[in-house]
Every structure is written in structure tokens, then in C-alpha cells.
Amino acid sequence: MRYDLIRILIVDDNHHMRVLLVEILRAIGVVHIHEASDGAEGLQKLRNHQIDIVMTDLSMQPLDGIDFMRLLRNSPDSPNAMIPVIMITGHSTMRRVNEARDAGVNEFLAKPLTARGVLERLTRIVEHPRPFIRTADYFGPDRRRRNDPKFAGPWRRSSDTPKPAAFDLDV
Q1: Which CA distances in Å does 46 have to 6, 35, 110, 120?
Q2: Which one in 1, 60, 66, 108 has a CA-CA gap of 20 to 30 Å to 87?
Q3: 52, 25 in Cβ contact below 8 A?
């Protein structure tokens, strides 16, 4: 993967965390890095610069990562509703992970950050993108990560129609 071509926006209100993340990204070859200190500034940076991937913190003030995601995915004036987003947090409880997932996050990365963790999430986003889904109450990447060939329903989308069962014709 050509990390030198990827343009990343880091949105985090903690200056030291942004510095750490910039150093990790530079170490793996990313050269186009933009920074924002909160969600509102992040949205403005997305309007003013071409960005490929956003990495944002969950806990920020005054606009936290979840609110930032909701505006990014659902606002009529969103600069790029389909941009891939990696949510970074020290609060990796299942409730917070589900909240971030339901806000439209592509990937979730728990602190403490490692170069390996950052690389894995970037690789997943670039090499294995998930299709976007729009429902009455959700817009974002498909939340289903696995395709289980043994799954037999219940089907929730018209595109999920089950394949006809094979019948034994030797009677």
C-alpha cells in the first residue's frame, strides 16, 4: 500500500495524542496529515482540504466524536458523508464501541496506540472497504463484519434474500 499517497485528518482535542499519532503515521510513510482540535474544526478542515481517511477521538469538547460522526454522516451540508473514519478511544467498553459503530464509524482503535494497530485499521479501510448502508435510522458502513454462509435468517434487507435450498432429486 502506498501510504505516502493517503491524506489523513486527525481530530483530537489532546495535543499530545495528535503529536503521537502524527509520529506513528509518519513512521509508516504517511506524509499528508492534517490536524483539528475538535469536531467543528474537523468538519471545516474536511471542507477545505481533500482528505481520504479521518482518525478521531471519541471524547472531545465541545463536540465529541459521536456528535462529529453524526454530523459527518447525516448532516445535509456534510463535506463527505462516506469518508472512512477510525474512532480512537481509551473508553473501549462494549457500550461505547456499539455507540460509535451505530454513529457510522468504520473502524475502532483502543488506546494505548501502537503502530501495528494503526496499520491494521488503515489496511482494513483501504483493502477491505465495507459497503455503505442507508436505513431510516442509520447511514454508514455495513455493520455486519462477517458473511456467515450458514446464516439462515431472519433477513432484514431486500438484498438479503436467501438463496434457494438445494433439493435432492434422486427420489
Answers
A1: 14, 10, 24, 24
A2: 1
A3: no
The Cα–Cα gap between 118 and 142 comes to 21
Report the pLDDT value the prediction gives residue 117, as an integer from 0 to 100: 95
Q: What is the reported pLDDT for 161?
A: 59
Bridge partners (DSSP) listed for residue 55: 10, 86
Alpha-carbon distance values, 84 to 106, 140, 141 (Å): 6, 9, 8
Report strand pairing: 85-89 vs 53-57.
Answer: parallel
Closest CA to 25 of 46, 3, 58: 3
Please give the backbone phi and psi of residue 70, each rounded to the nearest 5 degrees, phi first: -60, -40
pLDDT digit string, tens, across residues 7-44: 999 999 999 999 999 999 999 999 999 999 999 999 99
